[in-house]
Write the structure tokens for this entry.
Amino acid sequence: MALGTLATHGSGRSIAWAVVLILFGVLAVALPLGTSLGVVAIVSWLVVFSGATQLIHAFQSQGAGNIAWKLFVAAAYLIAGLYFVFHPLMGVASFTLALALFFVAEGVLDLVAYFQNRSAAGAGWILFDGVVTLFLGILVWRHWPSSSGWVIGTLVGISMIMTGTTRLMLHLAARRLKNRLSDQGSGIRLAA
């Protein structure tokens, strides 16, 4: 890894973003129902806007088969999105199950990333992130739907805290390595 790349990874800005991610994670844990409803509202409206885009695109398509299929897809997007906009608690329950599946997949992928990069500085944090995220996914899956009201906000917050902490530790490791390489480089120049 080039020294310039290390400087970018260990910069104050990247460390600040990791700290911001940790702080937003704490806020999400402190306000789980509000976070859950906020996530559902944002995703629901994105699905509605996607359905509207699909509808517009359907009329620009050529051929009756293409138009019919795209109208069907647009209707499905619009119906699902509007249903969750007007029934946010049902959306919270549905999204909770989807979140459980997402966390299981993210945890498995983090574990794969750890085994591919286990010799890198700070790789233990990737392993820790993967194990915690996988555990959270399985935990949500087992207790769904009874705890849907607080699960999305709490787990998104915990995931943000873990990801922010992982990024912070990796950035600090990159900064330490950059400083060590700089010190060795200046020592070599002084000796020459």
